[in-house]
Design a protein that fits this description.
about 425 residues; alpha+beta; Peroxisomal Thiolase, Chain A, domain 1; 2 domains; 9-stranded mixed β-sheet; 3-stranded mixed β-sheet; 14 helices; globular; Hydroxymethylglutaryl-CoA synthase; Thiolase-like; HMG_CoA_synt_C_dom; HMG_CoA_synth_N; transferase
């Protein structure tokens, strides 16, 4: 047998986002908490998604993937052989969210199912795992479904971090036909170390050291790119990449990371760095500013924002991507946008669906918080009430999976 001399081509074939059914503006939330409006402006946030009582990491994951999968040819859908769910919001210490996802998306029985946890870096770790599987040629034509799904637990104790903590999911279909993004296999840079910048020591506890998290994020930005440059020849931060996409807890943090990296790796003046940020980074910040931090889905939410924001698609536009997860682990990786990227992402109507979310006032938001924070608690029995009166009728929205209750710790869902 003669080996194929061509390098394997793998990456993202399709992607979709579920940004929830409701949101609150950063201004309304800040006013309700009595926070400094000036500091809120520096966060560069519009608002954040808010989970409803019938929404949890499972419903987010399924609702992110369903429309994308429904549009696949049945023969392609049947080639999904690996389902990876990246989350900090696991509903069980043993049973994987991927099992629920597999069931309610009615995926083939011939699937490997796996849940992955490494804070906000988990989806990128799973992406590289999937890329290696696809590039190996072990199962030609196979597809991998990767979903990053989380719910935020932040309340007034988190202070300004509460404004940036979103809920939702991003679904990626990975294959040897990467219409959206072809990965540069072997081109990556890594940097990791142990730190306690954020953590979830319990299912209803979220801890955050904002200063330590910022320091770790900035350090990982420059060190992961330095490692990328060590592995990949003839790379410059300001010349190699047409676009830069970052894990986005909030846009102000990305601006600080971009400035730090550009100062370290280029000779550009401050005004030139600011212009570079506007041109290469800012298009990826629109959706994160409207949804909040989607944890490991944040980087890929930013990627969808970039693609939807491009007025013109450059041939073989190269994208540099920075992924960070608290604790901490980070990676700088890259890829090229496919000719069909704009069409594939636009077909999902991510922006219009985000715009259709119900805007909550502060009192409505505050009433939802107890159930948000309890949704991951192990409960032997629990009943979830119907959607609120303002929730759109089925004819005005696509079907959504909803949590209906818990019986003997087993979660039960139905389509509404």
């Amino acid at each position: 047998m003669t080996a194929d001399p061509r390098p394997p081509t793998v990456g993202i074939e399709a992607l979709d986002v579920y940004g929830g059914s409701a949101w609150i503006t950063a201004g309304d939330l800040a006013a309700g908490r009595g926070l400094d409006p000036g500091r809120v402006t520096n966060l560069m946030l519009t608002g954040r998604s808010v989970a409803l009582p019938f929404e949890d990491p499972v419903t987010h994951a399924v609702n992110a993937a369903k429309g994308m999968l429904d549009d696949l040819d049945p023969a392609v859908r049947d080639r999904i052989e690996l389902v990876l769910v990246a989350t900090e919001s696991g509903v069980d210490y043993s049973k994987s969210i991927a099992s629920y996802v597999h069931r309610h998306l009615q995926l083939p029985a011939h699937c490997r199912l796996l849940e992955v946890k490494q804070a906000c870096y988990a989806a990128t770790a799973a992406l590289q795992l999937a890329a290696g599987h696809l590039a190996s040629g072990a199962s030609p034509g196979a597809r991998v479904l990767l979903i990053a799904t989380d719910v935020g637990l932040a309340d007034e104790r988190a202070e300004y971090a509460e404004l940036a903590t979103g809920s939702g999911a991003v679904a990626l279909l990975l294959s040897e036909q990467p219409d959206v993004l072809t990965l540069d296999l072997g081109a990556f840079g890594l940097h990791s170390f142990e730190t306690m910048d954020t953590a979830r020591p319990g299912p209803d506890i979220e801890l955050a050291d904002a200063d330590q998290s910022l320091v770790a994020y900035l350090e990982c930005t420059v060190r992961s790119f330095a490692d990328y440059r060590r592995r990949v020849a003839d790379v410059t931060l300001d010349g190699t990449f047409d676009h830069l996409v970052f894990h986005t807890p909030f846009a102000g943090m990305v601006r600080a990371a971009h400035r730090r990296a550009m100062r370290e790796f280029t000779d550009l003046a401050p005004a030139e760095i600011a212009a570079d940020f506007s041109q290469r980074v800012e298009p990826g910040l629109r959706y994160p500013a409207e949804v909040g931090n989607l944890f490991s889905g944040s980087l890929y939410l930013a990627l969808s924002s970039l693609i939807d924001s491009l007025p013109v698609m450059r041939d073989r536009a190269r994208v540099g991507l920075f992924s960070y997860g608290s604790g901490c682990s980070s990676e700088f990786l890259s890829g090229t946008l496919g000719d069909g990227a704009r069409g594939a992402v636009a077909a999902r109507k991510i922006g219009p669906r985000l715009a259709s979310r119900r805007r909550l006032d502060f009192d409505e938001y505050r009433e939802l918080l107890p159930e948000n924070q309890a949704c991951l608690l192990p409960r032997r029995r629990h009943t979830v009430g119907p959607p609120p009166a303002w929730f759109p009728a089925p004819g005005d929205r696509p079907p959504l999976l909803a949590l209906r209750g818990i019986d003997d710790y087993h979660r039960h869902y139905e389509w509404i």
